[in-house]
Hints:
Number of strands: 15
Strand order of the largest sheet: 3-2-1-4-5-6-11
Shape: globular
Amino acid sequence: MRLFVSGVCGQLGHDVVNDAIARGYEAVGSDIQAVYSGVADGSAVTSAPYVQLDITDRDAVFTVIEEIKPDVIIHCAAWTAVDAAEDEDNKAKVHSINALGTQYIAEAAKSVDAKMLYLSTDYVFDGKGDRPWEPDDKCYAPLNVYGQSKLDGELAVSSLLEKYFIVRIAWVFGLNGKNFIKTMINVGKTHDTVRVVNDQIGTPTYTLDLSRLLVDMVETDKYGYYHATNEGGYISWYDFCVEFYKQYGLDTKVIPVSTEEYGLSKAARPFNSRLDKSKLVEFGFKPLPDWKDAVRRYLMEADL
């Protein structure tokens, strides 16, 4: 099986390529940079075939995909700077990357009859209530530009293809790139106290665990919508921070505050990011491990 993985310089794409190669599959990574620019950890991805690709260039997308002729496309590339997406100067670019870029990838997948797996987000929902969102729930009124652009990407994939997986994730952390754990540990090293919101509820997702699931999925034809985060129950960002400070050995005091008290963010955040993952087991997929265990393994590997 030959896989084409977009966004390989990011947290998830890096781990997906490594997992695929470990299973003996061919994997070609791509990103917008001229050369691979992720973490130089000596893993398989650092020496895997790499193609520079601007996914907003439809002709370039078709040229690359039709030359490689992958059996599977795992589309990890995205604009993920949620607050910056709200800037007027960025809105068109966000739509071009997350919606149009995804459309072009889907069209190219169709042209070579490849399966496509698209990574989406809890932000496609309106964040209201406290019932966990189910994979087949309808998405209405995302709270911000980023969420709408990812929903538009979902709609492009589902309208163009039959052989697709749409996998929504949340609160992502991995070795390759920036994430909440890295940021807050760096802050905690230089501050006696930190303030973290306690009224946004969800579950973290470790890219190393997620990558295993994604490759499991594309080995099948169990197409459709899925939700995938680590197990261990629903928590707040405050709970998350307290746990990884404890595991890391930081004594920094974590002060719980409401989203309103915290302020700062340009983009509205969902209060309810609970994702129901029961469909994974129903369709024979192995759930991700407990998030506390994921944090433990991440901290052992990360250079923090």
